[in-house]
Amino acid sequence: MKEVKLLKGNEAIAEAAIRYGVDGYFGYPITPQSEIMETLMAQHPWDTTGMVVLQAESETASINMVYGGAGCGKKVMTSSSSPGMSLMQEGLSYIAGAELPCVVINVVRGGPGLGTIQPAQSDYFQSVKGGGHGDYKLIVLAPSSVQEMADFVPLAFELAFKYRNPALILSDGMIGQMMEKVTLPPYQPRWTEQEIEQLHPWATTGKKAHRSKNVITSLELLSDEQERHNQKLQAKYQQMQATEVRYETFSCEDADYLLIAYGSSARVCQKAVEIARENGLKVGLLRPITLFPFPTEAIHKLAQQVKGILTVEMSAGQMVEDVRLAVEGKTPVAHFGRFGGIIPSPGEVVDAIKQQFIKG
Amino acid sequence: MTEEIIIAGFGGQGVLSMGKILAYSGMMMGKEVSWMPSYGPEMRGGTANVTVIISDNRISSPVLHEFDTAILLNQQSVTKFESMVKPGGVLIYDGNGIVSHPTRKDISIYRVDASEEAVRSNMQKTFNMIVTGAYMKVKPIVHMADVLKGLKSSLPSRHHHLLPSNEKAIEKGMEIVVPVNVVSANCCVNCH
Amino acid sequence: MTTNDIVKPENLVYAKTPVLSDAVMHYCPGCSHGVVHKLVAEVIEDLQIQEQTIGIAPVGCAVFAYNYLEIDWQEAAHGRAPALATAVKRLHPHKYVFTYQGDGDLAAIGTAETIHACNRGENIVIIFINNGIYGMTGGQMAPTTLEGMKASTCPSGRNHERDGFPLKMSDLLALLPGTCYVTRQSVHTPGNVRKAKKAITQAFNNQKAQKGTSVVEIVSSCNSGWKMSPVQANKWMEEHMFQQYPLGDLKNI
To answer: Residue ranges of the Thiamine pyrophosphate enzyme TPP-binding domain (chain C) (predicted)?
Structure first.
């Protein structure tokens, strides 16, 4: 049965995971996302669905626990915030190389270093360009509401298993900490051992007499083989780019100016569009939902229509680079950002549009 | 209808939970709601604030820089947020410890001496409900029945026996809130 | 008499366990890894748990362990095997899970993962090959390298003022309440091989009985890394390694 609750984004992640039949969560506390593990522990799903929840000794350990669980064909996940995500990059590279499905949530805080515990979007590069060593990509989903925090847990797992690739939910302190109404999905059972063996014949479930052994590894020392493996990964990423792009547009039909923003910034920009239009400025908003694959084509098309594009990010300007690549010089592209944990105000965004494109 | 509220005060005054109860109440009335707290170490003993939005429509930004209503429970909050009330908006403050009172003439200002009342009537634990009552009197957007429902769903069931004392505190707040400066609600175009 | 006349079931006095694959091992002649692989394979066969066993391979010389044992495997990042094993075991409580790790993997880069897996008392077996050197990367100093022992990153010998002391990891792990069995064995003589096999068997039986973490350290030789002949290396191991790392049970409850 569907249930409407008032939840924090972090709590919604935990509730959705239990209901979706996730097998294991392995994490390490860090602000502003600790409510995820706290909620899971308070719900003790091991008594109901059989989900394993474990507090690891570090983010390094948690992502490697995720590797182990994913190698068994189980639905496993972890969550962290920026400094912890840096530690997880090693594991993510191995998971991508070994082609394992898993879900990771980053509730981003400002950096670099220990930075701040307040929201930021400064982990975009790390999230969409790989992050660890080697040529790989994560599937990156950017929720902009508590409802999407809940909805993207199943979606991330579906995509992760479809492509045998880690999927990242790139959130931030604002979405993690705020409460909104959220409709939770009904409970569904976890996969049985038989289902896992059928659905994921590659998983380490114990070598049965009728099949050869399963080995989960990212190692291949023969260069020809390693190149073939890399080509296979790249083909997978191209397939994602061709079929998995998701985005949303607001008031773009007649827009003269286009805002591009994801997650929290997109919420601020929705308000900015309202204010701008009240002031007679035809502004639209494109909100990428998948950051990888990026809505390159949609942006390219809108670039022919508008007089200027402003990206709004809680960073020094990271996504703006991908926007510029998509726009290919068809229209001016500028960036407006706040950082250090400051969320830009809708008014500031409107002022930035005026300043950038409607001088004098 | 859209009501954008900031509640600010000391950590421990129940600022966040008051916001939560308003958000729950809004939800009980079938409205869209958002609750965005300040979070982190500043919550302990320092200042805490929360933005609550209750609306008939989808809520765009949950973080705002101007508000329909500001509920301010210490001096720092009055100093910081008075200027962020929309012209024609409402400011409710607790006079306890306030040296520099709000002075704007283009907003309605109400005073509720909830701290003093809480001590006098031995209602320290429901201090924030006295303030909630003041808000409900000034802006009758959320109703008692919904607030009680909201309280019920936000409080763990072991605390449900406290519901009557919360209701009493709300009534007390409605009773003791006093106007300081009142402007007409439709004085300017910015009002919602 | 032809070969076919000899190869008959009634003439069979010894057979390689089918759990060990036919792949030619990449280990140097004289290396202990091959023997330990064989012992683990034999124990898995003896206990009839081939279909239920999942191995976690390390980074180091045993990185290709998965080529040699006919079971399901996961290859971990350097040092992280106990973290993988933790999740595999927790998600498959009825399967047998073991890690196979060298000294660099277990006692340097993976110290935290090792200690915390043992401290949680994860129901796993840890096979720990301690040869006091980094074999695969070409003979660099390990956390377990003896004082005065030469390695490519301490060419004049390990000096504790600069390099710290050799780490007695098993002693440390034996202190943790999560471990039920910590033992130090070797495989350099037939007698020691038999004892080591007994230890590995006990470790897997402990897992079946859900007693906690079992750690079987095998003090090993690395004649290539030590720049000795296999015979010399065994002798040197007896004379030096066993001083620092004496054989026997450190904990058995």
So the answer is: 74-218
Supply the CATH classification number for the domain B2-181. Answer: 3.40.920.10
Contact between chains at A179 and B32 (C-beta distance less than 8 A)? no
Q: Are the beta carbons of C68 and C48 closer than 8 angstroms?
A: no
Block residue for tokens 């996969």: A191
Task: List all chains that touch chain B, counting a touch as 3 or more CB pairs closer than 8 Å.
Answer: A
What is the Cα–Cα distance from B40 to A271, expressed in whole angstroms? Answer: 26
Q: How far apart are CA A176 and CA A10, in angstroms?
A: 5
CA-atom Rg of chain C in angstroms: 18
Q: Is residue A215 part of a domain?
A: no
Tell me the nearest-neighbour CA distance from A24 into chain C, angstroms: 7
pLDDT of residue B44: 52
Contact yes or no for B61 and A6 at CB 8 A? no
Chains that touch C (3 or more CB pairs under 8 A): A
Are residues A255 and A345 both part of a single domain? Answer: yes
Residue C104 CB partners (closer than 8 Å, separation 6+): C60, C78, C134, C142, C143
Query: Which domain, by its residues, includes A277?
Result: 247-357
CA distance B89 to B192: 9
User: Would you list which residues of chain C are within 8 Å, Cβ to Cβ, of chain A?
Assistant: 50-54, 56-57, 63, 66, 70-77, 80, 83-88, 90-92, 95, 112-113, 116
**In A, which residues are within 8 Å of B22 by CB distance?**
none
Q: How deeply is B149 buried, as exposed, middle or buried, from its count of CB atoms within 10 A (0-12, 13-18, 19+)?
A: middle
pLDDT in tens, C183-221: 999 999 999 999 999 999 999 999 999 999 999 999 999
Look up residue C149 and give its amino acid.
Answer: M
Question: Which chain A residues are closer than 8 Å to B147 by Cβ?
Answer: none
Q: What is the CATH number of the domain that holds C127?
A: 3.40.50.970
What is the domain range of residue C33? 21-252
C-alpha span between C159 and C201 (Å, rounded): 38
pLDDT digits (tens, 9 = 90+) for A44-101: 999 999 999 999 999 999 999 999 999 999 999 999 999 999 999 999 999 999 999 9
What was the ipTM of the complex prediction?
A: 0.94
Do the Cβ atoms of A217 and C53 come within 8 Å? no
- pTM, to two decimals: 0.94
Report whether A296 contacts A323 (CB < 8 A).
no
Q: Measured between CA atoms, how close is C88 to chain A, in angstroms? A: 5
Could you say which of A160, A193, A226 is where a domain stops?
A: A193
Does residue A32 have a pLDDT over 70? yes
C215 CA: distance to closest CA in chain A (Å): 19
Any idea what the CATH number is for the domain that residue A122 is in? 3.40.50.970
Which CATH number covers residue A276?
3.40.50.920
Residues A262 and A336 in one domain: yes
* Token couple for C60: 């180091």
User: Is C13 a domain residue?
Assistant: no
A257-260/A308-313 β-pairing:
parallel
B37 CA to chain A: closest CA distance, Å? 7
Query: Which of A26, A57, A71 faces C74 most closely, judged by CB atoms?
Result: A71
Alpha-helix residue ranges (DSSP H) falling in chain A = 9-20, 35-43, 59-71, 82-97, 124-128, 146-163, 173-177, 193-199, 223-243, 263-278, 296-303, 319-327, 346-357
Q: Which of A204, A220, A221 to mutate to test the interface with C (most CBs of C within 10 A)?
A: A204
Assess contact for C8 and C39: CB atoms under 8 A.
no
φ and ψ of A39, to 5 deg: -65, -45
CB spacing of B34 vs A32 below 8 angstroms: no
